[in-house]
Amino acid sequence: MNILISAALNRELDPIRRTLDSVFDNTTNSLSIIKIPKGMNTATSDFSNFLKKKRPDLCINTGTAGALSDDLRLFDLFFPTELVNKEGEIIPCGENPDTVSLKFPHWKSGRLYTSDKAVESSAEKVSLLTEYRAQAVDMEAIKVARLCRAAGVPCLALKVISDTADEQTKITFKRNLDRAIEILCEQMVNLIKGLLTKGDLVNIG
Predict the structure, then answer these.
(1) What is the pLDDT of residue 95?
(2) Rounded Cα gap, residues 85 and 113, in angstroms
(3) What is the Cα–Cα distance from 106 to 186, expressed in whole angstroms?
(4) What's residue 5's pLDDT?
């Protein structure tokens, strides 16, 4: 199985690469890791060309996210089943919440809102939660998923909650990033092991 992993920050990618290299033998299954631009507002053609060239069986977009819902706590793992943006575009991602809860009972599932910028106010946080019914916010997932869909590549996401998407976002993010990525690395290993053994967390449609 050929899996492509994408993330926007070197502080996310480098630990993930080291962790996966230490666990998985790439002679049987291929794991490729690619850095995408923060916000995914540029280099979309480069990513599309990479997908066409590599033709992975699956793309996983990973990294950090902010909590919109009070049900999410710092360092929670969030496995979105739907992605949404400000235009109201919705892209299914992954599998239904019941399947995820059975396999990974400590993960949270729901809708992930992809924003064009960091969410740094309580008012905007409440607005996104109310208008889009999103539990968490990131800056890349739906853009990656859209390009994957165009290339016929299944896509899912796994995010770790690193901040609370409010006035304290910058402080909270910087304080918690290292621990958040440590937790994410551990769970990326579990996710990939689950995919390689059964592979039923992916919505091909």
Answers:
(1) 65
(2) 6
(3) 13
(4) 95
Is pLDDT larger for residue 202 or for residue 60? Answer: 60
Question: What's the pLDDT score for residue 205?
Answer: 35
Q: What angle do CA 35, 79, 141 make, to 5 degrees?
A: 40
Three-class SS of the chain: CEEEEEECCHHHHHHHHHHHHHHCCCCCCEEEEEECCHHHCCCHHHHHHHHHHHCCCEEEEEEEEEECCCCCCCCCEEEEEEEECCCCCEEECCCCHHHHHHHCCCCEEEEEEECCCCCCCHHHHHHHHHHHCCCEEECCHHHHHHHHHHHCCCEEEEEEEEECCCCCHHHHHHHHHHHHHHHHHHHHHHHHHHHHHCCCCCCCC
The rounded mean pLDDT for the chain is 90
**Distance between CA atoms of 142 and 95, rounded to whole angstroms?**
16
Confidence of residue 25 (pLDDT cuts 50, 70, 90): confident
| Cα distances (angstroms) measured from residue 92 to each of 2, 96, 102, 137 | 21, 10, 19, 16
Q: Is the pLDDT of residue 66 over 80?
A: yes
Nearest to 73 by CA among 156, 147, 150, 183: 183
For the CA atoms of 164, 170, 176, 180, the dihedral, rounded to the nearest 10 degrees, stands at 70
